[in-house]
Design goal:
The chain is of the alpha/beta class. The chain has helices at residues 11-22, 34-43, 59-63, 80-96, 136-147, 169-179, 197-210, 227-238, 250-254, 258-261, 270-276, 285-291, and strands at residues 2-6, 26-31, 46-49, 67-70, 104-110, 151-157, 159-161, 182-185, 191-196, 216-218, 222-226, 242-245. The chain is built from 12 helices and 12 strands. The strands form 3 sheets. A 7-stranded parallel sheet has the order 3-2-1-4-5-6-10, with helices on both faces. A 3-stranded mixed sheet has the order 7-9-11.
């Protein structure tokens, strides 16, 4: 297939370009910069210029592809709500280019969107349209396209990691350096799901190849790693003590990260593994954190 990929030079997108080309697909990769264009050309992808701020700039790219994978997202979490609404507009624009066809559009969300009401692990079969997390905007946009006859599926991400980057954990390194301690909230038993970058890239490929309308998938290799384990690993790497911060002190200690650090967000990928014969094989989150270089 000829696949239009947004976020093609990002953390996940770069790995996905390689995964798709290795599997025999052609990649039309979106970038806004000359440096990004050079990276894509070197990887063997075609270059498409566009930006998230101008959703209409992406329509022509989607229109000339057999399938679309949307991994781009503005990760300025100080503007999280605004950026989720921007993602909603981008998804609508991409979908408009696929009207009247069965060409698949794979969008991206978070595993938290599948969370239950009683602390059980998030499931692919759970969708709560009134979820308080602003990222629900992405899945609502996908549902609107489904209702319009577009072939949309969703990949929900946990903390995606390798030794160089680890999702929302990466900003915690700077917090720890600034504060002189590697902290967790309360007893640190709240859990974050994780998935290795190589496994996540492979999942996106399998999802776009299957092209199942309305399906939701979890890119989860580990259902839940405790925040205390994460803090202790960061402490080892940074040579800082791992300490508990009271919930009422979290905002002062973590800043914008306080909205995430105390959440218990376990997530299952049992249905994803069964439906796609996808089985994570990459290193664990703690193994990658222990391998990371913090100097």
């Amino acid at each position: 297939m000829r696949i239009f990929l947004t976020g093609a030079t990002g953390f996940i997108g770069s790995a996905l370009v390689t995964e798709l080309i290795r599997a025999g697909h052609q990649v039309l990769g979106m970038t806004r910069s000359d440096a990004g264009a050079q990276t894509l050309e070197k990887a063997g992808a075609e270059v498409y210029r566009g930006t998230l701020e101008e959703p209409d700039s992406l329509v022509a790219g989607a229109a000339q592809a057999d399938a679309v994978i949307h991994t781009a997202f503005d990760h300025d979490f100080s503007r999280f709500v605004e950026n989720c609404e921007k993602d909603k507009r981008v998804i609508a624009a991409l979908g408009s280019a696929l009207e009247g066809s069965d060409r698949p559009l794979v969008i991206t969300s978070g595993t938290g969107m599948g969370g239950g009401a009683h602390g059980e692990a998030a499931s692919e079969d759970v969708f709560n349209a009134s979820h308080p997390n602003p990222r629900i905007a992405s899945e609502l946009a996908g549902h609107a396209l489904l209702d319009a006859g577009i072939n949309v599926s969703v990949v929900r991400l946990p903390q995606v990691h390798n030794p160089f980057k680890q999702g929302l954990i990466t900003p915690l390194v700077e917090v720890a350096r600034k504060k002189g301690v590697s902290a967790y909230v309360g007893d640190g038993q709240n859990r974050w799901p994780a998935g290795h970058l190589s496994d996540v890239a492979r999942l996106y490929r399998l999802v776009v190849e299957k092209g199942e309308r309305g399906a939701r998938y979890h890119a989860v290799g580990e259902e839940g790693v405790s925040s205390r384990e994460i803090a202790e690993s960061l402490g080892r790497g940074l040579k800082l003590p791992a300490v508990s911060v009271a919930p009422e002190e979290a905002a002062a200690h973590f800043g914008w990260m306080a909205m995430f650090v105390g959440l218990d967000m376990p997530a299952s990928s049992a249905l994803t593994q069964a439906r796609l014969d996808w089985h994570p094989t990459g290193p664990t989150l703690i193994a990658d954190l222990d391998e990371a270089r913090y100097i």
